Amino acid sequence: MTKPELPVHVIDEIVKRALDEDLAAGDITTEACVDAATTATARAVARSALVACGGPVLARVYWAIDKEIRVRIDAEEGARVQAATTLWTISGRARSILMGERVALNLVQRMSGTATLARDFVDAVPPGTPTRITDTRKTTPGLRALERYAVRVGGARNHRDNLGSAVLIKDNHIAACGGIREAITRARARAPHTSKIECEVDSLEQLDEALAAGADIVLLDNMDTVTVAEAVRRAKGKALTEASGGVTLARVAELARAGVDVISVGALTHSAPAADIGLDFE
Amino acid sequence: MTKPELPVHVIDEIVKRALDEDLAAGDITTEACVDAATTATARAVARSALVACGGPVLARVYWAIDKEIRVRIDAEEGARVQAATTLWTISGRARSILMGERVALNLVQRMSGTATLARDFVDAVPPGTPTRITDTRKTTPGLRALERYAVRVGGARNHRDNLGSAVLIKDNHIAACGGIREAITRARARAPHTSKIECEVDSLEQLDEALAAGADIVLLDNMDTVTVAEAVRRAKGKALTEASGGVTLARVAELARAGVDVISVGALTHSAPAADIGLDFE
Amino acid sequence: MTKPELPVHVIDEIVKRALDEDLAAGDITTEACVDAATTATARAVARSALVACGGPVLARVYWAIDKEIRVRIDAEEGARVQAATTLWTISGRARSILMGERVALNLVQRMSGTATLARDFVDAVPPGTPTRITDTRKTTPGLRALERYAVRVGGARNHRDNLGSAVLIKDNHIAACGGIREAITRARARAPHTSKIECEVDSLEQLDEALAAGADIVLLDNMDTVTVAEAVRRAKGKALTEASGGVTLARVAELARAGVDVISVGALTHSAPAADIGLDFE
Amino acid sequence: MTKPELPVHVIDEIVKRALDEDLAAGDITTEACVDAATTATARAVARSALVACGGPVLARVYWAIDKEIRVRIDAEEGARVQAATTLWTISGRARSILMGERVALNLVQRMSGTATLARDFVDAVPPGTPTRITDTRKTTPGLRALERYAVRVGGARNHRDNLGSAVLIKDNHIAACGGIREAITRARARAPHTSKIECEVDSLEQLDEALAAGADIVLLDNMDTVTVAEAVRRAKGKALTEASGGVTLARVAELARAGVDVISVGALTHSAPAADIGLDFE
Amino acid sequence: MTKPELPVHVIDEIVKRALDEDLAAGDITTEACVDAATTATARAVARSALVACGGPVLARVYWAIDKEIRVRIDAEEGARVQAATTLWTISGRARSILMGERVALNLVQRMSGTATLARDFVDAVPPGTPTRITDTRKTTPGLRALERYAVRVGGARNHRDNLGSAVLIKDNHIAACGGIREAITRARARAPHTSKIECEVDSLEQLDEALAAGADIVLLDNMDTVTVAEAVRRAKGKALTEASGGVTLARVAELARAGVDVISVGALTHSAPAADIGLDFE
Amino acid sequence: MTKPELPVHVIDEIVKRALDEDLAAGDITTEACVDAATTATARAVARSALVACGGPVLARVYWAIDKEIRVRIDAEEGARVQAATTLWTISGRARSILMGERVALNLVQRMSGTATLARDFVDAVPPGTPTRITDTRKTTPGLRALERYAVRVGGARNHRDNLGSAVLIKDNHIAACGGIREAITRARARAPHTSKIECEVDSLEQLDEALAAGADIVLLDNMDTVTVAEAVRRAKGKALTEASGGVTLARVAELARAGVDVISVGALTHSAPAADIGLDFE
User: Shortest Cα distance from B160 to chain E (angstroms)?
Assistant: First the structure.
């Protein structure tokens, strides 16, 4: 599988902000209790089963704090590991390890949490069905790049990155335009030719209208599976179909079997519980 | 109740970053489909029961986008509302409302999610027991100030803000120092006199050592309720007691009845599901 | 025509940087020579024919310097004006007007220069041919959002905004993949489903390969017009065609008549001469 | 010749912004098509004759993206090279090279464009005449430091950097003061003693007034060559003379022969066409 | 007297940083003790005699915290006031006033401290002697613009702003060049023509060399008054003279009488004690 | 003694700002006079007796300018040295050393100035008395972290870092609450349990009220020594005592003998004169 890529300058900006929150005034406990010269080795350990994600980010946290710290990647990005598996090993000045512990864990726990949930959704797609699981723009403000990366590490795919990277016509746009046909026509005339035109539809009538207007993708919003199946049938050969709206793990299989091309899942980024990862000093 | 306060310049910094993520390249759908002069009114509506939180943040999102937008606060910060309640009403240019929709919702959904979970924990404390629910430093990187505010809006309290604002001696500090007594002594000698000295203990033996060394607060880490009760008995009149470590809603009542002063709950900020809030155009 | 939109927070970030460059150490000439209480009115005047662009940016420059300054928009964004036309009128403290003059002019001269050149290209497309003129990513570092806006103000369209907003497979990607088919297949499998797949081709052989692999857009790189016409013929009904590579104004008409869908022009943003605009005090 | 110097922290700030524009959401094409482990070597090649400028900036772009990338400087800053000359060679991970390609080229094309135009102006000064070519403050917002460096690399000189670094009295300052004498007197009394006093004059009458008031430099604004020659005669021994206002390459020689000390050329930075540089993979 | 000018965007950047330091985690005392709706009026009062400076900065601190706060300027910038004088009056929400108190006072106490010391030096120049008092680049990192403004408010003048705004050749430059003549010649050839050439000299021999090479200003470093007087005599009509190096208030008069043009005083910005200003609630 | 720790990312942010002030437009003197290839060694030398502080900061200044520069720490942080002692030795490109000289010295002179004054206060505490000297929040805006570090390097201790890290109830909070008892009660109920409650008192009556309400620390504001001694007697076993308000070096001994636990000294950070440190080239 292609290895997801996360630009270093994007990581560093997020790491800097996180350190500013936690370490701007120093670490009064560590400075008082730990001698400056003490060295240590600590292992970041999965406390429960999870998909490992965030090693390069943890490494940049420590690079920002102390250039002498060494970080070893024990679990590849995207590896499914069992509880008690060592993910990453950190060695160097004990003060530095302690000063960065919480910031590093806060980041990798969220990233691994999202990667794990993404993997669960991907694994719920029945073998042989080509349905793609994607995220949405319901990401944590300030962490979109990390979370989209975690989604890919988990094996799912990304939806559009931002309001400027693709067209997605929703009910309010349609209302403002006076109709689906008009909205799609305007978007095709004005948006970059590199973007597909996606249109949200709430009913089969709207679906037909969107297909007639030449939508490239139809977003089937909160439809039951029978309706989705009918929508897929009507859209076949004309547009990609995307199911969205509170899709749970339990529903993935039936939606996939209904033939939908894409299932987009906001929960991957807005409600994934943090993975349980701890730092053990040797 | 005292109204929590969230500094405006802190909000604005977070809002700016969030807008950079979503709107730096403009909104190609809205620009194509919605005329610049069209105006609208939209209501942010709770889709399920929740504790309202984030109105001032939503207002700053729109202030950043368009100084002419008006935001009305329909639900006070901290109000428990039922599904279908209007929380905030936004009126002005339709383009501006649409351009800010996702960023605004991403922020208030997280804040209301945390406030709601905080309220649930606070409400689980039996009447008459003085136990305090607090957050931890397991916050979302970049959003700590918002999340700590949401915790207070939910009726819970904050733990220390960062590594510089209070002393919390953990096992690794103790190991590096050579013992609890030494760690507490060093911290009292060197940390600001305005900070209490909190010490994590894993056993009653450690507890006794921490109390003897004069700890102001003892963090009872992952102890069962019987042990907590004994720890509370030993600490009475000497130190505050704080229970921590994967505390679920179900366990709050028994811990409170065991007499613990504080229960700190990482899940308030690391795993609260986003509250379901939508934007309805009139 | 739909009015292009430029987010205010994007403008303000650019304006702040520009002011930091020019005004961080104050304006020693103005402070010495102009009394603080003196007021004035100044008109930004086109010194030659141009397409007006940048009024909202000029207004934000002055808003950043002095909240009391009033800016009146005399020429609509996108208006073609003759030499000596007043574009915008600024009134308030004379010191403030002078302190912001160079920064404001540097911005609007570039924006109007790009808008003017974009309009020239658009006007060179023969009536009745649907060819679209677009920019490229060859923008001035730090000013991409302003320049893309200026391109739209001039009546042209935008290409993809950045490396994350659409797929464009170039020769080096093809080489790294081992072929056009493999590159397109991989991109379709992994990139967001909202992005079209564009593939650069240098020859009709490559074109056929790209079409066979299902490219949504083919980028005809540096082809002569006869070849472009043949490429258009082969791509008809299968993919959009985009001509690129040093296209001059003189060649637009023949390329459009050859039926190409899109002509992308790097010069719109990398080599547009600044429009000549001066500030006249009344 | 003294080698121009460009502070690293200034480069890095500009590079970071440029990467934020292009790479904040990753590179979906490269991630999909190029394996993470693939390495490559690419050469930045002049497609036409130019003055090389920007090697240290290109190197910092790649340093920001990937610390393992190696950049070799093949052409010295300021070297005049023919088409097909390799300027810089980049080797390392193919993904990194591709991800930084556009940002790096956008920067060096502008810098080399300005350096080339500056060299053309410098070369137009007849041998034996001491006239100096300088830039103005008509720089690209956000890139002033890079452009002024490119001007020096091209062999020309810089004018004042910003509004706080030297006094330049223009017509509006004169009007606000009530006259040239008053303006110069005020400036001498109040501005830093390290700054010369330059005064713009539109006529020989104004010139005489400025010289009488003790101006250190007179800016001859939009004067014909005969008038410039007379101005030079009158100013000899009293003040430096600077010709400005739409000076073209063709006029440089006659102005220099007229004896003017300085010719300042806004076009060096506001209208230099980008130099044509491409990236060829081996 | 001309009123010094301090650009708003420069103030705001400094204010934001200062608020980040003190208020990023909220104000736990004020939130607990003061109701959100309480209003108040507070007066910033001089506790001892001083030169008022910083009113516009204090106003921006409160504008950043709370747009509803009103700030009244009771003492003009540069006014010499006695102890117990009200300088500025702040009214609005009591919480906001308290949250900004320390940041505002920290800024205005430093600014007024510098303005007061500057005024003392200016007043020490005997009437009728034209000697100018200036600051140096020995400013507080991050606050240079505020401090240079305070120097002007105090009636003194600014030296060069930064390393790019004027030439000042020091002993190490001379050593690197191989002599004063060479250094001055190089600087004249390469530095902007708008900058004077200042050269530091330690002896009368060096002075003669600098004058012969055409220095515009000579910096008389740590010379006794007799030597300064001789230097002034030799430089008359050729260069400005500047005395520098640990000049105390007591020595100003004799140096001025020795005829030196400029006395530059590092202590204005590196060692001015903070002025004593308190905030009294009504 | 425990070695104070200053996070690297905090230093770098301050260094970047300082370089922006001084070096954003380059160093026109050094570029003109010093060849790019010249190397040198320079020693930062104490010109008078001082406590060394700032070596790690000086090192980061040079790391920001030129990765090839080597900095050797000759005097440990906190070492008391005599005049003429070499503190730090810098070697590498002469241009780089010169370009960073002023920024580096401005930082270390302030840090060493504060460390020296802190040491003087600490040394004024009579042997055998346990009184602690601390700073206050009266720090230089933007430099709080550096100054608090310098205070610790000087052997003194820090007070609370910011408004969110501890409770300090002042007269205005008391007035807004309706009394000391109410203020302390509210603070205990709402502030983090990790913070002690400090209350400012102006009289023995207020002291008794604060003690009765359970204050952890009482701030004795501007009291004479006899009153301080009585306050200490009353507070014994109930609360820590802190003397504050214009405490001079001369008064430290008598206050310490009066038994006060803490003396907080604003002058450590708001009025410490810069230490005299120069840079000598070998």
Answer: 10
CATH domain F157-264 topology: TIM Barrel (3.20.20)
For A118-222, strand residue ranges (E) read 132-134, 167-169, 197-201, 217-221
* Kind of pairing between the strands at D240-244 and D217-221: parallel
Q: For the purposes of burial, counting CB atoms within 10 Å of the CB of A96, is it exposed (0-12), middle (13-18) or buried (19 or more)?
A: buried
Give the pair of three-digit tokens for residue D88.
């810089």
Q: Convert the pLDDT of each residue in E203-241 to its tens digit.
A: 999 999 999 999 999 999 999 999 999 999 999 999 999
Q: Return the CATH architecture of domain A8-116+273-281.
A: Alpha-Beta Complex (3.90)
In F96-186 the beta strands, taken as DSSP E runs, fall at: 132-134, 167-169
The residue of B13, B23, B99 whose CB has the most chain C CBs within 10 angstroms, and thus the best one to mutate to test that interface, is B23
Write down the domain spans for chain C: 8-116+273-281, 157-264
Q: What is the DSSP string of A26-54?
A: --HHHHHHS-TT-EEEEEEEESS-EE---
Helix-helix angle E94-124:E144-153, to 10 degrees: 60
Q: ipTM value of the model?
A: 0.96
Global pTM reads 0.97
- List chain A residues with CB under 8 Å of C193: 132, 134, 157, 159, 196, 217, 240, 242, 261-262
Task: List the catalytic residue out of C27, C101, C200, C209.
Answer: C200
> Measured at the alpha carbon of residue C186, what is the angle toward residues C184 and C188, in degrees to the nearest 5?
70
Q: List the structure tokens of D134.
A: 């300088």
Best of E6, E160, E193 to disrupt the D interface (most D CBs within 10 Å) is E193
8 Å CB contact of D176 and C29: no
Does the active-site annotation cover A221? yes
Dist. CA A184–CA C170, nearest whole Å: 29
Gap between the Cα atoms of C87 and B222, Å rounded: 70
Closest chain A residue by Cα to residue D24: A10
How many cross-chain Cβ pairs, C to D, lie less than 8 Å apart? Answer: 217
Chains in touch with E (3+ beta-carbon pairs under 8 Å) read: A, B, C, D, F
pLDDT band at residue F246 under the 50/70/90 scheme = confident
* Both tokens assigned to A4: 């997801």
Q: Any residues with CB less than 8 A from the CB of F123 and at least 6 apart, and which?
A: none
The pLDDT-based confidence of E1 (bands split at 50, 70, 90) is: low
Under 8 Å CB pairs connecting chains E and F tally to 216
User: How far, in Å, CA of D148 to CA of D146, rounded?
Assistant: 6
**What is the model's pLDDT at position D224?**
96
Q: Is C219 helix (H, G, I), strand (E, B) or coil?
A: strand
> Considering only alpha carbons, which residue of chain A is nearest residue D32?
A2
Nearest to C195 among A168, A196, A242 (CB): A196
D neighbour chains, 3+ CB pairs within 8 Å = A, B, C, E, F
Burial class (CB in 10 A: 0-12, 13-18, 19+), D74: middle
Please classify residue E35 by burial: count the beta carbons closer than 10 Å to its beta carbon, then call 0-12 exposed, 13-18 middle and 19+ buried: middle
Q: Which of E232, E267, E230 is nearest to E247 (CA)?
A: E267
